[in-house]
Amino acid sequence: MATTNTWFNSIQGCLLGTAVADSLGLPFEGMTAQRIQKFNPLPLRHRFFIKGGMLSDDTEHTCLVAQSLIVSGDDATLFTKQLARRLRWWLVGLPAGIGMATLKSLLKLWLGFSPEKSGVWSAGNGPAMRSAIIGVYAANNNELLTKLVTQSTLISHSDPKALKGALIVAMLAAENAINEKSDIDNYLAKIKTITDGDEELTDLVNKAVTSAKKNESVKTFCQQIGFNKEVTGYIYQTLPVVLQIFLRYPRKYEIAIQEAILCGGDTDTVAAILGGMVGAGCGAEGIPQHWIDGIIEWPRSVTWMNELALRLSKSKTEKQKPVPLNMVGLLVRNVFFMLWILAHGFRRLLPPY
Asked: Which of 137, 156, 257, 315 could potentially form a cystine with 105 if both were Cys, beta carbons 3.0 to 4.6 Å apart?
């Protein structure tokens, strides 16, 4: 591990990087790039609940993975059981905006399907949105990283595309956490271990790499590959956009997240995936403090996530317990969050169009 970027800093940066980007992107979810511009989004600020930010399933899944890793350590089988159990009870908490593939898979878990058989055929972003933290945790052990990401993916998604996307996100987060001097070619070497044999993914990656080497804006890149209005929740749309931005700004959090959100579409998830990857390299100190302070969540508060990062960072050398979570408070929070999501939906019926 690089001396200036300890394992704790990488874990904390990954968790908070995911949360902050998720929170900033959430108010614009589902909007086209053109409509986002009409809301005068720059400079980026929290605006979901007045001037505060809240968190969606992207951050929640990352926290569930971190809690599972604290208990399981390097035991992939135990990790699978822990994550499956936590995902089942997460569903009982009435989360808003849950993806259809994830919903179906969690219902299958409740019906008695094993975690290895509960996934549905989907190439959505679900597995990728929770894999950066796995990459940081298993940064020095590629075999463990692959096992953990595979198990995490199969719980909800069985399409190989979802797994490949999640693996690339995890591997790049790992490389960013342990190697301060990685460049595009170093990252590309990691990616090629996954893309070989997949012509569609190889083509998308090559286009992203070529665009990044030219230092083109992500807007220009999106126009080149036909994503003019928005980036959807399909992993083979999300991944090349995230990759193009990450290769240019692997440790420049603020500008990276800004570019991701302005693409439109699945803004919270695209930004959250990128935020975890970039945060793994820059640490919490690389994230604007006013963005961190602007998160008004409870019970998964910033303080709670910092404690989660601390316990996960210690779990390799000494036994740790998961961070307690007020489940009654969480249910009340989720009801409020769902109502506020509906309020945002009605707001979008109004100008500017």
From this structure: 156
